[in-house]
Amino acid sequence: MSKHLNPLEKEFLVKQYKSNPTIKMSDFCRANNVSDAALRKWIKQYDEGGIEGLARADADIKEILPEGIDRTEEAYKKEILKLRIENERLKKNYTVRTNEAGEQEYVRLKPKTSK
């Protein structure tokens, strides 16, 4: 009996297959230990209903993603952009703090050395 994949794993496989149009479905399925029919079904379900469409009928859809997470692709893009900006800021040794007036300001984590 094969292992049931959760919706996030199914989504990952669907996106991997769609991102490489040169690979044949049968080769991709064999490499990932998935049947061709299952992958076709997941692609159809994902195109029609997103990650919620990949959930099993008896599964609780609320458990797929944490509460408060917006499921749209645009929200994911915004989150990635925010994380990239924060990463660059931290590379330059800055952090964001809220001052007494409630405004955000950028503050150096360590003072600059004069060496």
| Class by SSE composition | mainly alpha
Task: Kindly report how far apart the N and C termini lie.
Answer: 65 Å
Question: What is the number of strand segments?
Answer: 2
Mean pLDDT: 79
Shape: elongated
Count of helical regions: 4
Using the coordinates shown, work out and report the CATH topology of the largest domain: Arc Repressor Mutant, subunit A
In CATH, the architecture of the largest domain is Orthogonal Bundle
Based on the model shown, name its key terms.
115 residues, mainly alpha, Arc Repressor Mutant, subunit A, 2 domains, two-stranded antiparallel ribbon, 4 helices
Structure, described:
The model has no long low-confidence stretch (mean pLDDT 79). 50% of the residues lie in helices and 9% in strands. It folds into 2 domains: 7-63, Arc Repressor Mutant, subunit A (Orthogonal Bundle); 73-108, no CATH class. Helix 1 (7-19) packs across helix 3 (36-53). The chain is mainly α. A two-stranded antiparallel sheet has the order 1-2.
Write the layout of secondary structure elements.
Blueprint (H helix, E strand, L loop, with lengths): L6 H13 L5 H8 L3 H18 L19 H19 L2 E5 L5 E5 L7
Helix pairs in contact: 1-3
